[in-house]
Write a structure and sequence with these properties.
The complex is a heterodimer. Chain A is of the alpha/beta class. Chain A has 4 helices and 5 strands; from the N terminus they run βαβαβαββα. Chain B is built from 15 helices and 17 strands. Classes of the chains: A alpha/beta, B alpha/beta.
Chain lengths: ~120, ~425
């Protein structure tokens, strides 16, 4: 089994940390994983447009050129099966956007809850 | 409504009291005459060590009986924590009346409790919160009572405080900082600096302590003494520690790239983090993915947290040691601990608190005490770091001890990563 994941975040630390966490989590389950990254809405849109569908995306809600909501809508329109997680410090502020995402992950990232939520996102 | 009881004391459970309080506020828009007393007893577990039984539990049962005798039909008392109780009283709206009631409770509690022929005197702090136009919800009242109780605790034992209707300024700032803390950790407002540790024997910097700083965009520099306790309270200490540990790995790589070897980094680890169930997993993850233990990393544990957690720490610190991470006892000499832990815990280093060093040139007894501590550490094969060394006179006296490491403004203040590397590489 293999999974394609897109991480969208403009903070290098977060991208690296999430990628390492996901790799370690998937390795424990003998699942191959391909991780792609984007640091802006524009770059994420381009990757969604050009690349084959991702199994899941983790999208930071506070990006320099917009919010993660636009990315989620684009991703959904391309492929309904892509699982979407919003990463935010303030999940309550995005109450209206609940439907655009499968789940909300809280920042700053806590190792344990991130792992559990990510597995939930992939329905593993 | 069926209210659940606390199995040990038979008093109501905290959740039950919250429900009752919510219901009271939901009963209309009239004037509520409610008072909450938040009562916390000072560390009842301290008796357990002496008597080798769970004496605190027996005391709690007796305390609950005392409460029952003092309550009227309109009162509800619930257990809200290990040694914390919340008492809801209806029909009182004057501060004086509420204070008198709290005083009566405290007076009764100051009577000795008798268990198995022994007399026990206990101490407590009480915070009072009265309902008002501003204090008009269950959550506000409970928070206010709890915060007021903490203010009472800060004043010493057996104190009573009444909450004002307006949040006090320090509480306002605290709430603001607590709200801003997660984004500060995420966006780099919280950053790290490095204070060098100088070996008098090797005549070079052999390590550094990583310190945390917060430059708030509106409030300016916030001291770690202010935000670390808030991070502990809000659970943010855990992601903050993870970030510091990742930063330490990156710093090790930088040092290596500059040809700096045989160099250690020390990271403060809060007991809240250390006792988290997932902490060892986090360390394992960081070792595997960030090479955390490839270099000389040390965890600094505050001495005053040891006595409360000795059993847990013995096991945890051994596990950490097995991962090739050193253990340092921070602020050595300030904690209310027995010396036994120096033998039972797998410690590598003691960091002698600055209070033992400041003005040693003027106080011969202080100097003698410092000499004795260093001799003891050496006898136990522990490394010694002396903190807070600031003057030429202090360092002149310390030079007698060849094999020690000193940290303080005399050698360097805390520096940014690039400044610190420049200091280490300057010819």
């Amino acid at each position: 089994m293999s999974k394609r994941i897109l991480i969208v975040d403009d903070v290098d630390f977060n991208i690296e940390f999430e990628a390492k966490l996901i790799r370690s989590l998937m390795a424990d389950r003998n699942v191959d994983v391909e991780i792609d990254t984007a640091d802006s809405v524009a770059m994420a849109m381009e990757k969604i447009e050009k690349n084959r569908p991702y199994d899941a995306m983790i999208i930071d809600m506070n990006l320099p050129d917009g919010t993660g909501v636009e990315i989620a809508k684009k991703a959904r329109s391309q492929n309904k099966k892509t699982r979407l997680a919003a990463l935010t410090i303030y999940p309550n502020e995005y109450e209206k956007e609940r439907e655009s995402f499968d789940l909300f992950l809280k920042k700053p990232i806590m190792l344990d809850s991130f792992k559990n939520s990510f597995l939930q996102l992939l329905e593993m | 409504m069926m209210l659940e009881r606390d199995p040990l004391t038979g008093l109501y459970r905290y959740e039950a009291l919250v429900e009752v309080l919510k219901e009271k506020f939901g009963e209309g828009s009239g004037e509520f005459k409610l008072v909450l007393f938040c009562i916390e007893f000072d560390d009842l577990a301290r008796f357990n060590d002496t008597f080798d039984i769970d004496l605190d539990e027996q005391l709690l049962i007796q305390l609950a009986d005392t409460f029952r005798k003092l309550t009227s039909d309109r009162d509800i008392v619930a257990r809200a924590g290990t040694y914390r109780f919340v008492w809801l009283s209806e029909g009182t709206s004057s501060k004086e009346e509420a204070y008198n009631k709290a005083q009566a409770i405290l007076n009764t509690l100051q009577e000795p409790f008798c268990i198995a022929g022994n007399m026990f005197y206990i101490t407590a702090s009480i915070g009072i919160s009265l309902s008002s136009n501003e204090n008009n919800s269950a959550i506000k009242m409970l928070k206010s009572a709890e915060n007021t109780m903490r203010m009472a605790q800060k004043k010493g034992t057996n104190h009573i405080e009444i909450g004002s209707n307006e949040p006090n300024p320090s509480l306002k700032t605290e709430l603001r900082l607590m709200k801003d803390l997660p984004s500060a950790i995420d966006n780099g407002e919280i950053y790290f600096v490095y204070q060098g540790q100088y070996s008098l024997k090797e005549k070079r910097f052999v390590g550094a302590e990583i310190l945390t700083r917060w430059l708030h965009p509106e409030l300016g520099h916030i001291s770690p003494g202010e935000f670390i306790p808030l991070a502990e309270k809000s659970g943010m200490i855990s992601p903050l520690t993870t970030k510091i540990l990742v930063a330490s790995s990156c710093m090790f790589r930088e040092l290596e790239a500059h040809g700096i070897k045989d160099f250690s980094l020390s990271v403060n680890i809060s007991p809240y983090v250390l006792l988290e169930k997932s902490f060892c997993d986090t360390v394992a993850f960081l070792i595997e993915n960030y090479g955390l233990a490839d270099s000389q990393l040390n965890f600094e544990i505050m001495e005053d947290t040891i006595s409360q957690n000795l059993e847990n720490f013995t096991h945890l610190l051994s596990k950490i040691k097995q991962r090739n991470i050193g253990i340092e006892i921070d602020d050595y000499g300030t904690g209310n601990t027995s010396l036994n832990y120096l033998i039972s815990l797998p410690i590598d280093t003691i960091k002698i608190d600055r209070s033992f060093v400041s003005d040693i040139d003027k106080h011969p007894k202080k100097y003698a005490l410092l000499c004795a501590i260093i001799d003891m550490a050496k006898a136990l094969e522990l490394d010694v770091i002396i903190e807070g060394v600031e003057t030429e006179m202090e360092i002149a006296l310390l030079r007698k001890f060849e094999n020690i490491v000193v940290q303080g403004y005399y050698f360097t203040k805390p520096l940014s990563e690039s400044e610190f590397i420049a200091l280490l590489t300057e010819k």
